[in-house]
TrEMBL record:
It comes from the Eukaryota. InterPro entries: ABM_dom, Dimeric_a/b-barrel. Residues 21-75 form the ABM domain. This is ABM domain-containing protein. It holds the Pfam family ABM. The lineage of its organism: Eukaryota, Fungi, Dikarya, Basidiomycota, Agaricomycotina.
Length: 200
């Protein structure tokens, strides 16, 4: 399975007004050796939080990016479109992530294990939830998740939906909502929804 680089930051007003200023970075990286594609967009929740998913054949292909002649110029552009620091993780998803990243709305969930909880605890509840979601939301299956290479306690999950409302309606069902409560007991959650643009 390819490695997915996930970077997030708060977007500048300049980017929000004109997302095309990021285009040279998108075009350059997606043409790089080992890059399978890129998916990026602003969060619906605040229209400021930007997520960028870059799919790499291997982690080594991403590391090799820094040696490209245009890398310094891309960094300048990235600095111009973000406020403050960015966070980058590399995720080894357990299932195909393409349906989620190319859906009309992508649920992006970062999960950090709570004290005393384990990866097995998390995977057990996610497997139960995924079975129900995939059955009721089949056209964007599978629900997928995976560990970050940077932090053994941090994981990402992605799910494709027709809309944020479709997601909220689904998880609010009395037959499903207790599972969300169990998940919150296991991990601290940070969730966003985004309509991602795909390139490459």
């Amino acid at each position: 399975m390819p490695i997915v680089e996930i970077t997030s930051w708060e977007a500048t007003d300049a980017y929000i007004a004109d997302p095309s200023i990021f285009k040279p970075v998108v075009e350059g990286i997606t043409k790089s050796d080992g890059c399978i594609g890129m998916h990026s967009g602003l969060a619906e929740e605040d229209r400021k939080r930007f997520h960028n998913f870059i799919v790499w054949e291997t982690l080594e292909h991403h590391k090799a990016l820094t040696s490209q002649p245009s890398f310094a110029e891309w960094l300048k552009i990235i600095q111009s479109v973000k406020v403050g620091e960015s966070k980058t993780y590399h995720v080894d998803f357990v299932k195909d992530f393409t349906p989620a990243l190319t859906a009309p709305t992508t649920e992006i969930l970062r999960m950090t294990l709570n004290e005393g909880k384990t990866k097995e605890d998390l995977y057990n509840i996610l497997s139960t939830m995924a079975t129900k979601i995939d059955a009721g939301n089949a056209k964007y299956a599978p629900v997928t998740w995976g560990p970050t290479l940077e932090d053994s306690n941090t994981f990402y999950l992605t799910i494709g939906w027709d809309s944020t409302k479709a997601h909220i309606d689904f998880v609010s069902d009395p037959g499903f909502s207790p599972l969300v409560g169990t998940l919150r007991e296991i991990a601290t959650l940070e969730m966003f929804h985004s309509s991602l643009s795909s390139s490459g």
